[in-house]
Design goal:
Number of strands: 4
Distance between the termini: 58 Å
Largest sheet: 4 strands, mixed
Radius of gyration: 44 Å
Structural class: mainly alpha
Strand order of the largest sheet: 3-2-1-4
Strand content: 5-15%
């Protein structure tokens, strides 16, 4: 049962899934809303500019039916006149064309937002497969589109029949009216009938937009397994990331261990902590911590130091302070300069004694470590 639930698309689409769909040109669209916006734009333009358009088109019609004698004898003049009429007509209809273009773009954007994707134009051989086309035609989506088209035709047809029945006598009356009053009356009747039909399209759009959004997000729903795989792809497999971090720690520890033989001294606690210090007066302003560790790592540092004859000094307060307040590569804190200076003086004296066969100096004790830098100061049972 658990495996079946993992295969069911019960989870909403993730942000990445929606982003990928948009990149492929797959965004929610409502054809009914697009048609409604275009029709409303056209009707609104005719409402506002109808009188001006009528006067301009009437003027162009008169000009087109009027011929100068010279034009009948010279084809060039005739072509020039036709060119002027075409330009004037295009200029007259340009506001209507602009409104329709803007409306045709605004309709789709209102649902799915603005989106540009070249993947939608890429060639796909599956689109040429007639079997796949028939399957899409008889799929649930095709059936829903068919039902929607039938309902739309019934609604619009009913509205159109009601309009024609209500304005039947008015239409017959136009036959006995003069031309200009008849055209004006016809335009008013056409506009009112169009607005009535638009009201039906508004109802269709109010139903279609939520349906298209529901259908779009339903198709993009994901299974629990898909969500897990996507999380692993984005965030990385936790096991792999854990192994990477482990390898990184091992590599850092290996590099650190390579610096221990170059150290001048290793300060210990004596078993819990170990801090390796190096000082080069020509390139360093103050001694630096080149390695540090606790417990097993501290043991490894001590073993490497012994194998490479690096002096070990048991100074628990100083070891604890250096371990707590420095990172690898840091200079020792200024508050520990005095204590570290005594340690470095002991190291240099030890080297000199070894080189000349003299008695080794005694290890420094009671190093001046400020209590506030010693994390074990005043703590009972702290590691010594």
């Amino acid at each position: 049962m658990a495996e079946d639930s993992d295969l069911e698309r019960t989870e909403p689409a993730s942000g990445r899934r929606l982003e990928q769909a948009r990149e492929e040109g797959n965004v929610p669209r409502s054809r009914e809303l697009g048609s409604l916006v275009v029709l409303l734009g056209g009707v609104a333009t005719m409402w506002v500019l109808g009188g001006w358009l009528y006067q301009r088109m009437a003027m162009l019609t008169r000009a087109g039916l009027s011929l100068e004698p010279a034009q009948t004898r010279d084809p060039a003049l005739m072509i020039h006149a036709l060119s002027d009429l075409f330009t004037d007509g295009l200029t007259t209809l340009l506001p209507l064309f602009l409104v329709l273009v803007i409306a045709s773009v605004a309709g789709p954007i209102a649902v799915g937002g603005f989106n540009v994707s070249t993947k939608a134009f890429s060639f796909q051989a599956s689109r040429l497969n007639p079997v796949a086309g028939l399957m899409r035609l008889f799929s649930m989506h095709g059936l829903s589109e068919l039902v929607k088209a039938l309902l739309k035709a019934i609604l619009i047809g009913s509205i159109g029949y009601s309009v024609m029945k209500a304005r039947g006598e008015q239409s017959l009356h136009l036959m006995v009216m003069a031309v200009e009053p008849g055209l004006y009356e016809f335009a008013q009747m056409l506009l009112a009938s169009t607005l009535t039909l638009v009201s039906g399209l508004v109802l269709i759009a109010l139903v279609d937009v939520p349906f298209q959004l529901w259908q779009y997000y339903s198709k993009l729903r994901m299974t629990k397994d898909e969500l897990k795989q996507e999380f692993k792809q984005q965030e990385g497999d936790p096991q792999i990331k854990g192994r990477i971090r482990q390898r990184q720690r091992e590599m850092a520890r290996r590099r650190m261990m390579q610096e221990v033989p170059k150290a001048d001294v290793v300060v210990t606690n004596p078993t819990h902590y170990a801090v390796a210090i190096r000082y080069d007066g020509a390139s360093m302003r103050a001694p630096r911590v080149v390695a540090k560790g606790s417990d097993l790592v501290a043991q490894q540092i001590r073993e490497v130091a012994r194998a490479n004859q690096v002096p070990l000094l048991e100074a628990p307060p100083l070891a604890r302070a250096l371990y707590r307040h420095t990172e690898i590569g840091d200079e020792v804190p200024a508050a520990l300069y005095t204590a570290v200076a005594e340690v470095m003086a002991w190291v240099f004296t030890l080297r000199h004694a070894a080189a000349h066969g003299a008695t080794p100096p005694a290890e420094p004790s009671h190093l001046p470590v400020p209590p506030k830098l010693d994390p074990a100061h005043g703590v009972a049972g702290a590691p010594q």
